[in-house]
């Protein structure tokens, strides 16, 4: 769902973290819509780490590594990408509301 200000959330389920997404991509989508009331695109399951990582995640991680390296450490890691396609920042799984100020700033600059 693209919001009027151009902001969009995209979700990519992954089963690389203690097998927390063992079902099909469709089941992951249904779970996101039921549990989290997702009103945003939930894509096919992807790999985010290793040599078979999705190209998108290779790009995101290369452009915003952490002090511990580039690996995604756990589910619900978030990346904020500007309209220009550049990675603005990366957020751990527990970050929720604190990302809001960065989103607002990115929308103001766009």
UniProtKB/TrEMBL annotation:
- Gene Ontology biological-process annotations: response to oxidative stress
Per UniProt, the keywords (alphabetical) are: Oxidoreductase, Peroxidase
Q: Entry's PROSITE patterns?
A: GLUTATHIONE_PEROXID_2, GLUTATHIONE_PEROXID_3
Matching entries from Pfam families are given as: GSHPx (PF00255)
InterPro entries this protein is in? Glutathione_peroxidase, GPX_CS, Thioredoxin-like_sf
Residue intervals passing through the bilayer: none
Coiled-coil region? none
For this chain, one GO molecular function annotation is: peroxidase activity
Keyword Oxidoreductase listed? The answer is yes
Provide the Gene Ontology terms for cellular component: cytosol
The protein's superkingdom reads Eukaryota
Q: Which family does the entry's similarity section mention?
A: Belongs to the glutathione peroxidase family.
- Name this polypeptide is given: Glutathione peroxidase
List the source organism: Arabis nemorensis
